[in-house]
Amino acid sequence: MTKKLSLETELVHVEDTNTHNASITPAYMSATFKAKDLDEMGPYDYTRSGNPTRSALQNHLSKIMKAKHVYALNSGMAALDVIVRSLNPGDEVVAGDDLYGGTDRLLTYIKTFNHIKVGHYDTTNLELITSKITKNTKMVVLESPTNPLIKICDLKAIADHAHKQNPDCVVVFDNTMMTPLFMSPLELGADIQYESATKYLNGHHDIMAGVIATNSDELAKKVFFVINATGAGIAPFDSWLLLRGLKTLALRVERQQENALKIAKWLESQNIKVRYPGLESHPQYELHKKQCKGTGAVLSFETGDVAVSKRIIAACELYSVTVSFGYVASLISLPCLMSHASISAETRKEREFPEDLIRLCAGIESADDLIEDLAHAFKVAGFR
Ligand SMILES: Cc1ncc(COP(=O)(O)O)c(C=O)c1O
Ligand SMILES: N[C@@H](CCSC[C@H](N)C(=O)O)C(=O)O
Question: So where does this one cross the membrane (predicted)?
């Protein structure tokens, strides 16, 4: 077919050749592969280095992420770990001031133990962030929308500035919240896009996974070296589950987004300050619309009192109280005690991180049921 296919179509059609023409890519549950003969070893020898199920997944992701090189790893944090291993002591990294807690923890680790200089700044303030990116900056680490404050940064403007200052500066973008369905960071100037595939890409909360995408041969080479050297590549059965989950990405995320918008509007109608890029009240609503095709399904809001937030969360019946997001069922959490507990209370305060912030991630249930459950929880908690 010569026509350019839409992403929704690409998602469900996995190109793969396998011995028996199985319709579904088999899970090659083998650590080793026999050498044909000693002069021709074949493409696979050991699953740490490569596995056909992982290759099928990576090839499929390459199409979806419109990237020349894609690597699938055993978690989103493993992906970031592989990326930051290209840094050397003394290198300077500029990062956002609102990042997933585990990202912050890993950046703090490399700052403390690898002697890499890491500065955190408000990425919504273009003047500030660009003033911090200089010719000495080796890497920029961004998230947008951020987890959990839903801050939006201007990726193109930041990447253009970084590359002007230092053509070798590596702009790394965490696209977990938007997924390739709603945002194409590589097209906007990122050198490396990574995602926690544990979230939307898989969608079923039954695996941990991460992906790295880049169009640079040089960066891809470095990434593959570390994956092979450390064993960070995704396992065959997890590759198989991720391939299966990806097929319904568009259906799931579109429905989740629809629900999130309805919930966000309902919360706003209760005079609550809601952080969601699909609301016109979001301070970077226009910017987000300019660089993304959708607004995702994660939102957060404050109640003004940690005790009230805890009571609301405890009173929810449909929302599971868990970390993570992107699951087909709805989730609710208190980031300061859960996903962002690894950031010290002092740092959270410095970065204006509200302790009463509730993060909510819409699933694919009926929006009416989800709103009714929240309304009921508010009542039980004595809120509103
Ligand atoms: C935005 C974001 N990036 C990266 C990660 C790390 O991914 P993983 O949990 O798959 O290691 C998470 C959550 O854990 C996240 O929320
Ligand atoms: N105990 C975990 C917490 C994981 S939080 C996962 C997710 N990214 C989220 O934002 O909810 C840890 O220490 O990493």
Answer: none
141 backbone dihedrals φ, ψ, rounded to 5° = -115, 120
Q: Do 213 and 193 meet the contact criterion of CB atoms below 8 Å apart?
A: yes
Ligand 1 centroid distance, CA of 330 (Å):
17
Which residues touch 106 (CB under 8 Å, ≥6 apart)? 77, 80, 81, 84
E-strand ranges in the chain read 69-73, 92-96, 117-121, 137-143, 170-174, 192-196, 210-214, 274-275, 298-301, 320-321, 331-333, 358-361
Cα three-residue angle 262-267-270, rounded to 5 degrees:
130
Q: What is the pLDDT of residue 84?
A: 98
- Rounded distance between C-alpha atoms, residue 270 and residue 258, angstroms: 19
Q: Is 304 left (phi over 0), alpha (psi -120 to 50) or beta?
A: left
Residue-wise pLDDT tens digits, 319-347:
999 999 999 999 999 999 999 999 999 99
Omega before residue 148 within 30° of 0, cis: yes
Looking at the annotation, which residues are catalytic? 48, 100, 174, 199
Q: In 3D, which of 167, 158, 170 has the Cα closest to residue 96?
A: 158
Cβ 263 vs Cβ 370: under 8 Å: yes
pLDDT tens digits, 294-310: 999 999 999 999 999 99
Q: Identity (one letter) of the amino acid at 47?
A: T
Q: Which residues line ligand 1 at a C-beta cut-off of 6 Å?
A: 75-77, 100, 102-103, 143, 147, 174, 176, 196, 198, 208, 210
Whole-number Å distance, alpha carbon 322 to ligand 1 midpoint, is 14
Residue 373's Cα: distance from chain center in Å?
27
pTM exceeds 0.90 for this model: yes
C-alpha 245/C-alpha 195 separation (Å) is 15
Predicted-complex ipTM score: 0.98
Three-state SS letters, 7-42: HHHHHHCCCCCCCCCCCCCCCCCCCECCCCECCECC
